[in-house]
Amino acid sequence: MKTSNISVNTPKVEKTEDGEEIMKPPQKWDIRLLNIIKETRNAKKWTQKDLAKKISMNENVIKDIESNKIPYNKKLCKIIMRQLGIDTKTIEFPVDK
Predict the structure, then answer these.
(1) In whole angstroms, what is the distance from residue 75 CA to residue 62 CA?
(2) What does each C-alpha distance from 78 to 3, 23, 41, 55 come to in angstroms?
(3) Residue 13, strand partner residues
(4) C-beta of residue 72 within 8 angstroms of C-beta of residue 8
(5) CA–CA dist 37, 35 (Å, integer)
(6) Cα(54)–Cα(79) distance, rounded to whole angstroms?
(7) CB 65 within 8 A of CB 37
(8) Are the beta carbons of 36 and 82 closer than 8 angstroms?
(9) What is the pLDDT of residues 43-87, one digit of tens each?
């Protein structure tokens, strides 16, 4: 099975005014987006494994997203929503911080 090359655990690094690099805490998924994903997946009668397979990801990624255990990733969110048939133009996505 082909695996997506989207990194779900890449830490964000910022530079301070002094040029020092600091790690930013990961941004959590907006609970409204998680609910839309879960409810739509359930309405389609898809398991987490079904959805993961359709987007070429590991089932654990979907489990971790739905339980908000991995950082928010706008690109991954849009891929999931498109696969679920959700019009991404009607969703206000948080910006990756």
Answers:
(1) 14
(2) 17, 25, 14, 11
(3) 23
(4) no
(5) 5
(6) 10
(7) yes
(8) no
(9) 999 999 999 999 999 999 999 999 999 999 989 999 999 999 998
In DSSP notation, the chain reads -------SSPPEEEE-TTS-EEEEPPPPPPHHHHHHHHHHHHHTT--HHHHHHHTT--HHHHHHHHTT-S---HHHHHHHHHHHT--GGG--PPPP-
If phi > 0 it is left, if psi is from -120 to 50 it is alpha, else beta; for residue 43 that is alpha
Once rounded to an integer, what is the mean pLDDT over residues 16-32? Answer: 79
CA distance 51 to 17: 43
Residue with tokens 């133009």: 89
